[in-house]
Inverse folding.
């Protein structure tokens, strides 16, 4: 059983998946920092200091000063600011992944040798009608 497990782990797909997960976790930390430490403050400056992450609609009867206070009290809320922040994070991650895939494809295309030049095609094959006409002419000539 150990030998079978070793072969399973040594397969390329498992190792590739493990590397992808590790790099993905590190990439997530970078994107979260980009959003929280750079983009959200810039958006706040543009929008006059509004921090979207604390915006919510209270569906309960009590009043709360912050989203954290409402959640701690178990109040029903629609946290549209947190959703908007998650949406911004998603768009940034999607854009970064797009750029990464584009760069990898460009590198792969540069590393792939160009295909050999196409050989010039010979004369086109005769059509069915041309073959039948040739057969007819041969039969007439014979007999």
């Amino acid at each position: 059983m150990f030998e079978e497990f070793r072969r399973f782990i040594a397969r390329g797909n498992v190792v590739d998946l493990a590397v992808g997960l590790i790099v993905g976790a590190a990439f997530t930390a970078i994107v979260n920092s980009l959003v929280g430490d750079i983009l959200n403050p810039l958006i706040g400056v543009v929008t006059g200091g509004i921090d979207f992450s604390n915006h919510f609609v209270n569906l309960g009867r009590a009043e709360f000063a912050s989203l954290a206070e409402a959640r701690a009290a178990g109040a029903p809320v629609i946290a549209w600011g947190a959703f908007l922040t998650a949406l911004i994070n998603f768009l940034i991650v999607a854009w970064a992944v797009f750029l990464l895939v584009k760069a990898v494809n460009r590198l792969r295309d540069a590393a792939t040798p160009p295909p050999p030049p196409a050989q010039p095609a010979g004369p086109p094959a005769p059509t069915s009608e041309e073959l039948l006409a040739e057969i007819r002419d041969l039969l007439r000539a014979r007999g």
Summary: The chain has one domain: 2-112. DSSP finds five helices and two strands in the chain.
